[in-house]
């Protein structure tokens, strides 16, 4: 009994010392600032923050958990938009609101976590450094904590900064694919032969051999495109702005053969684990390409390919494979919108 009393006194004294140290030496809430720069124009960046459907696709807080369930409320972007979320695996839930918007300049968020009635306040400012570069500044004010919970303030800033670091990687990948698509669409000049330097790519796709009889090849391409797209979007959970246009790679002159072998893949930013053996990764090395854009029925692409090959021969260039980038989704019975790229070298 005496030992129990002594232990009780010790616990009370330690608890009192802890409470006193928290009360006098640790702030009940925290204010801190995080700054980052990203190589994209302010209007492109802002659109990823004020549209909460975009926001949850790259923000690590939401993407890091496979079990999180998010509901979106109208208006889906700008002042007044909101989401609620539940994550049963991590036993968390909350609500997030955009309370103020100044287009391309400022956003103010409120985040209510679990059953806390006091929100975390996050003001985000966007400053264009140049036409292609933006500074993003987060001003964070955490909710007041009781004396017993104030110890959490020791790691709040580090945890927030770590989340932003991971989120910025996701945002860069997302914007890279989106801006690349926008730039490609804006640069299209049909039936004109151009020379381009293409950077390396990483494709996730499928190897195929099929008949080259009339319409059979294109039907096969549509079928396998759907396989790859469904695998990337559904099995891997990737959104459309997280990957590039689908690319079909094949020998430049195999359009004359009775049977055609090709690889059809979708560009991803990095390798990830894939459990289905039907799909594999292929790296595409940087190359110089002769390029033509073509729109029409799939058979009509052959004339454009022949022009690219003739140009290479005339310039005394050797050539490798032909890459067919589908600017629009291939669909049976419809015309295609293609970027045809013939890799050339001396």
UniProtKB/TrEMBL annotation:
Pfam families: AHSA1. It comes from the Bacteria. Belongs to the AHA1 family. Residues 39-174 form the Activator of Hsp90 ATPase homologue 1/2-like C-terminal domain. The lineage of its organism: Bacteria, Pseudomonadati, Bacteroidota, Flavobacteriia, Flavobacteriales. This is Activator of Hsp90 ATPase homologue 1/2-like C-terminal domain-containing protein. InterPro entries: ASHA1/2-like_C, START-like_dom_sf.
